[in-house]
Amino acid sequence: MTANARQGAHDHGESLYGEAPGNGAGASYSGEALWERERELRLVDEAIERLCEDREGGGSLLVFSGVAGIGKTRLLQEVRRRATARAAVWSARGGQTVSSVPFNLVRQLLQHSLLAMTPEEARAYLGERHDVVGPALGIADPGGRTADPRGVIDSLVSVVTRLVQADWPVVILVDDVHWADPETLDWLAAFAKTLDSTKVLLVVALREDGATGRTAQYLKSLVDQARPAGNRLQPLGPVAAAELTRATFGSLAEDGFCREVWAVTGGNPYDTVELLSKARENGVRAVESEAGQLRGLNAASRGTGLVERIEALGAGALNLARSAAVLGTDITLPLAARLSDMPLDEAATHLARLRAARVLTGSDDDLQFVHPLIATAVHESMRPFHRTALHGRAADLVMESGRGPAAASRHLLQLVPDDDPHVVAQLRAAAREHLAVGAPEAARLCLERALLEPPAPGVHAQVSYELGCATLLTDLSSTVRHLRAALELPDGLRGKDRIDAVCRLSQALVHLDRLREAVDAVDREAALLDEGPDRMRLQGVHFMWEGIFARENDAEGRSARLAALADPLTGRDTSERALLILRAFDVMARGENAEQAVELCDRALVNGQLPPGLGWTDTEWSFELLVMLGGAYIFSDRLDRASSLFTEALDVYRRQGWSGNHLGVAQAFVGYVKRRRGQLRDARGLLKEALRLADRVGSRMPLHWDIVCMLADTLLAQGEVREAEELMERYAFRPPYPDVIVLPDAAAVRGRLLLALGRRKEAIDELEAGLVSLTARGWHNTVLAPVHGELALAVAPEDPGRAAELVATARRAAERFGTDTAIGESLRQAAAVSEGQYAASLLARAVTYLEHSPCSYEHARARVEYGLVTRSRKELDRGLTLARSCGATGLARLAATTLEEGRGLY
Q: Is 540 in contact with 582 (CB distance < 8 Å)?
């Protein structure tokens, strides 16, 4: 961070906290001393010392919690004072009336500094993440895109991490986190998890009581991560209350009066300060005989009593305070005056009264309430129609300033529903802006509020559709509910939006593992349409979902219908190209002919590239279609094209800041292509990272099954059997499997693991069930699902005849499919259940095929097994070299040990 940026962060943070109460008891409490906070300040001093003494190592998190008025903000002010001389201090504060403003606290931390820069400086400051985080921070136009919310959060974490490392040492103060917007809470939770490696001191203040839902979960997570935990601020004791009383009234304040101050306030610092100040203002003497007046004065410190005290300042002062409460943040005297509909000089007079009464503080261009309790009381004291009118006027002022619907939306959300189409239109526009910056939760609030207005009959379905789309990346159950409502309304969706809604509904159902419902939804809509592009698109979606349905009832019939529809197509539009991809995947999975599968894939592309409308971030077709395209290439031995396709996906998603489910899919398949190529070390790392991404999206999602299966397959290839077992146990990878297919085949991988563990009976049961399922599905690709070979190995000791039949079936299927990998692997598997010279001849042929295959691990395995059967030192040496280059440590160990022993080798 530049020197100017650092100073900007300091200045901005200071203004956020404002002054402490400026006279009377407030002055006493706001001085250098803090009453009964020695333990907390010791923790602060130790944390600042650890931060500044060495920039290596990790950071730390301190969380201070407690009820309203307990002194959290004052404590953070003291943290700021102690840290400022040694570190840069960034700060932000939540607010009750701005909790719907996305990224509000993150913007407070960074925006002031970034806005002081030129656009070029800001772009350099944010680096490659500028286009992703710039819109979220309000310093760049998002354009018309919809941002991936997970990607925006991850990019913000990355940016802040880089900035604090460059500006070390940095202390980040975040006050009133219980009022943080959901997007900031997402960021804060993610950033806190990086503190083991990010050298920064993060200090958070919050109220635990009253939080619900996701906010309560986030707050609990922060409290649990803090070290030490349990920093809940306690009320002042009688001694501290007495000292504070005597600091206000003098050393002669009587003990009885001091005890009553403590008893009335319960030791709450805010209440104590306010009570003592009012007692002085009202001429109360600090003697026990006048202590009875304290309870009445204390009632004026909160709620209606506080509002009555402001009312006593006059109608003008009350109106100005109400306007400030509605504005919430970014309160300036000119803006509050306009909202109150009063001249600026008159507003200045009322502001002076509010300052003197310790209601508002700060400069005319940066006003705050002295305490959030005051803002809450003033805002909630207004009658609904008055509050609505002020929020409506505030929304107009925001729009007039050119800041747009998203900035105005927090005021629009406060309006009482009134059947106003203009409000509906503004809320829809605000939702689009929120989605463009990666804030689907804010978009959801706007669209749900728009439904309450309610929209006109012709618009209602459109709003429900937009709400369903807004929740697609974050809440699939809500997506299903809203899209079904949009489709079922009498004045429902028409044209392209309706087709899109059906496709998105089916996609959400698939991701919820409700695949049969997804297919039924598409079929019902397709039956209502005449021949044409829309019907063909739905037919394509139908075949796509049925193609990944693991429990088909009519696989042969489905395949025949798909072939009849797709084979004549030339690929003139996206629907035709989609059908060609689906046909290619079907040909591959059924093991019909690899060259035909590849030719169909190539016909779906334009000069070897994805055509417009079928890109990784295009929305007309879900990414599952492109996964099927890549899968057809992978299992047809065209790993070069699969690698290019999935690497492009990874680059596109990273460049555009996507880091949720989509990035996990791309990462997984890039890793699995490396597994097929025999680059096992790289594959393992990529698949573990993909699994980490999947874990953040949810548990036991279809994506999990694929990644766990791919990673287990990779670990088994490396010889890491126990690690593969632990992985599958951790993710409960066992039957019943999901309704969607798993790539590679789940039963084949788990059966192989069980066999490696010596659990032969369980392996046979698993593989027999897998064989039944594959036969029903019509899948005969022996590379995608090598069940026959694994089952043959399992049954060979007790039933060699059955084993011979199984490997013969696998050989016929492999020869029909025709790839070097399929044929070579089928020969190797046949050799594994054969003996003597016949086994050696099978392995010799297997090696010949596999050395022309792109799958180096399979080649290495065949070489080693050939060397073992023939006792050939030369073949074992070649196999050992290949196994080591692949990272197949178990296979390499076997070859090396045999070579070292040397018995019978020639």
A: yes
